[in-house]
Amino acid sequence: MTVVDDRPETAAPAPRRRPNRLLALLRNSWRQLTSMRTALILLFLLAIAAIPGSVLPQRGISPEKVNEYFVDHPDWAPRLDRIGAFEVFGSVWFSAIYLLLFTSLIGCITPRLRDHVRTLRSRPPAAPKRMARLPQHTVLPAPPGGAAAIAEALRKRRWRVEVRGDEVSAEKGYLKETGNLLFHTSLIAVLIGVALGSWYGWSGNRLLVAGADNAFCNTRQQYAEAKLGPQVSSADLPRFCLRLDDFEARFLASGQPEFFNATVTVDGPDEPTRSADFSVNSPLRLNDASVYLLGHGYAPVIRYTDRFGNSQISDEPFLTTGDMGLTSEGLAAFPDANVDPATGQRAPDQQMAFTGIYLPTAPEQAPFVRSQYPTERNPALNLVAYRGNLGLDAGIPGSVYQLDQRQVRAGKVKEVGTKLLRKGETWKLDDGTTVEFLGTERYVTLSIRHDPGSTMLLVSCGVLLVGLMGSLFGKRRRVFFRVVPADPGEGSPTSGSSLMEVGGLPRTDYPGFADEFTQLVAAVSGAERAGDGADSAERAGVREGAE
């Protein structure tokens, strides 16, 4: 016998689709990155990452300070240099935090901006059915004119109003969210301004000695330290030249600086020839460049006469040691000294160099190692003479401010004497050659830079502060009014008239909302004309709180 299964066929369950784990991971990562919590963490990390740039010297601002740090900390400096501690704002790790913060802020702001625009275009919501449940609630006689009069009184106080029959809804305080969005949008603009300055900006440092022979032209080769953005080439630099004509400095009796002013002559294809003055807080503005005054010092003028009677003059700047008296140290090298005029041959082991300490105001008695005042009241130059092969012909880069100590340790350069020279004095060495201290020239340390994002940064920071003020002081709140008939019971003081039920709630933390609510109710009901808002509301029969 054949058994027939007449049960209804059931469809086989559809196979469950396995979620794409990669897409889920990317979606969750994006949500985490664009959360406000992540943005705040990245902003905090960016602030921490900027600390080394403020504590440690940076090559783009003060390369000589970086060199001093290497001399003072020979163990730590190479390690810090490997992680970009002397170029913090251009390092990979700082740029990574910067880009993540930029992306996070855009992801945070975009949906909030869309919701805020939608809120601004929407009408205030309808009044709740049970206003007694709101944080602020009261019932009092309705003003003449009913809902229309209430709406007009609210509009005069800059509330957004919506009338629905006998109900009036009003809202205020959009400035808080607007300010919040302005703040974060301005922060993005600040990041864009910094990026523009990094990509299309350039900067360089130059130590400029007074005199026509020391004029500086804006080429990369003439900078002591130059940094060009990735989108800038040497050919893009504006063409101009600077010559330092004069430098004026005034100091207080304690040695504290009071006034600095540099006078320069500007000329070149991109700049009209003119004389210009600028100081520390008032940079020189040129086309596509700004010249900032960073420091100043002295360049001793030394004349060396070799054994063949040939004279050479050095006016190399001496770098200040950082004390208040502008004590300076430097090097005057004469690699072409003692060249035989008959044969034109130079003896490499007869090259001369002088390391020295310059004291603008030297003490009356030894030791002569520190100046007592930054201006030249008693100038003196303490020199140490060296003779030998200075190592300059080897083509190995070295400092122009310090003698190569490797040559000294190898015995190729030897010390031949020391002497303290006053201005105009001459020192005769053991081989009959002479050194004369002729005086000094002033020099200034300049930072020349172009930052195309500076205007955007200035405007963005101003808008950022405005948005911050709105975010801090703006308070979002809503109030609702409903006009209802009065209870017709006998003995009721409002028998035959209408009542106004009022409710309000703050949308943000707002401790003063209760006082504002009381004043608003008194103003709308017309009771403020009789005196203080709160007392008048009581005389008008205000019943506050849940009934």
From TrEMBL:
The keyword Cell inner membrane does not apply. Keywords: Cytochrome c-type biogenesis, Membrane, Transmembrane, Transmembrane helix. Signal peptide: none annotated. Residues 529-547 have a biased composition (Basic and acidic residues). The chain crosses the membrane at residues 92-113, 181-202, 455-473. Residues 527-547 are annotated as: Disordered. It is a multi-pass membrane protein. InterPro entries: Cyt_c_bgen_Ccs1/CcsB/ResB (IPR023494), ResB-like_domain (IPR007816). Residues 36-517 form the ResB-like domain. The keyword Transmembrane helix applies. It is found in: Membrane. PANTHER family: CYTOCHROME C BIOGENESIS PROTEIN CCS1, CHLOROPLASTIC. This is ResB-like domain-containing protein.
